[in-house]
Amino acid sequence: MDSEPIILGIESSCDDTSASILKGRKVLSNVISNQEIHSLYGGVVPELASRAHEQNIIPVVDTALSKANIKKNQISAVAYTNGPGLLGSLLVGSSFAKSFSLGLGIPIITVNHMKGHILSHFIDEGNESPSFPFLCLTVSGGHTQIVQVESPTIMNVIGTTLDDAAGEAFDKSAKLLGIAYPGGPLIDKYSKKGNIHAFTFGKPKVKNLDFSFSGLKTSILYKIQNNTQKDPNFIKDNFNDLCASIQYSIVSILIEKIKIAIMQTGINNLAIAGGVSANTYLREELKKLSSNNNNFKLYIPKFEYCTDNAAMIAIAGYFKYLDKDYANLNETPSASLTF
Ligand code: KG4
Ligand code: ZN
Predict the structure, then answer these.
(1) 322 C-alpha to ligand 2 centroid (Å)
(2) Are 111 and 79 in contact (CB under 8 A)?
(3) What pLDDT tens digit does each residue of the chain (339 aa) get?
(4) Domain that includes residue 104, residue range
(5) 130-135, long-range: CB < 8 A, 24+ apart
(6) 95 and 224 belong to one structural domain
(7) Ligand 1 and 118: CB distance under 6 A
């Protein structure tokens, strides 16, 4: 008998509506509907996001089922993101998951979005998954954390941002340069043609393993304002160099803390997760770090599992399913859910 559970994952914490079907740890489908509307506003507009989730959720789940060639009655459990994220957006996914599970008489499983990012490393794509314990640099639009991961369920945040997240630093800097939201991927792209040392910006002085990006943002703003007053074409004429220097500053802040975390914990397994882990320069720098140290093992997720997706929610749900760690229908999502 085939005993691998089939999990439907639902992700709706921010501006992507996603549904995925996993059989065991293998992805049968992972459908993501991006909400283009926010690029007009320079950031995610919560009310528009929840309305778009409402429109997208049923077609996205339908497509995930048909791509996976799975019938509803074959699903073992529904796993959904119950935070952190935008409350209105979370409510769409959670209401859908609850109704779906009620209709089919199957369990629901709640997943912390950040844990989902980390556990995306355990999706079976023939690649090696990190061995425990490992450190995970989880860098997204809303979070920047160093997490010590002991098992699929035991994780401790050992460093976090005191203000903006790394993704926010990318997106807000991009906005100053006139790049549409989300600017992170475009800064990454234009940086390839720029000089990382063309401009220098203020460095944060934060103790322990914590991060800060708000000072950097201010430093970038002043540099741009001062130079644009003298030369209105400053941004246009220095565009690639500005992108490369901003990216260098953000990535350097991340790398510096990761080096300290490795030294302090003595843990040499490092994984990266979250939207910013798609960044080419961050990946290159971490690869350099690992090739200079034979004991150091680096795990980089496939691009499609870096940014928000429901496969990561389904894999986190899979581990909870094995533990029979189900939720009940009274569970409410939380915008500021912690570990
Ligand atoms: O994990 P994610 O998809 O959503 C959140 O949970 O926030 O992360 C989105 C963030 C955005 O800030 C986006 O600009 C950033 O990840 N991002 C990148 C890259 N790809 C996505 N930042 C830098 N370089 C990239 N290649
Ligand atoms: Zn995310």
Answers:
(1) 24
(2) yes
(3) 468 999 999 999 988 899 999 999 999 999 998 877 767 777 777 888 888 889 999 999 999 999 999 999 999 999 999 999 999 999 999 999 999 999 999 999 999 999 999 999 999 998 899 999 999 999 999 999 999 999 999 999 999 999 999 999 999 999 999 998 889 999 999 999 999 999 999 889 998 999 999 999 999 999 999 999 999 999 999 999 999 999 999 999 999 999 999 999 999 999 999 999 999 999 999 999 998 887 889 999 998 999 999 999 999 999 999 999 999 999 999 999 998
(4) 6-121+306-322
(5) 130/269, 130/271, 130/297, 130/299, 131/269, 133/267, 133/269, 134/267, 134/269, 134/270, 134/271, 134/299, 135/258, 135/261, 135/262, 135/265, 135/267, 135/269, 135/270, 135/271
(6) no
(7) no
CA of 245 to the centre of ligand 2 (A): 25
Considering its fold, how many domains does the chain have in total? 2
Same domain, 164 and 254: yes
pTM for the predicted model, two decimal places: 0.93
Instruction: Indicate which residue's Cα is closest to atom 10 of ligand 1.
Output: 141
- Which residues are close to ligand 2, an ion, with C-beta < 5 A? 140, 308
Residue 328 within any structural domain of the chain: no
Is the same domain home to 112 and 156? no
165 with 251, same domain?
A: yes
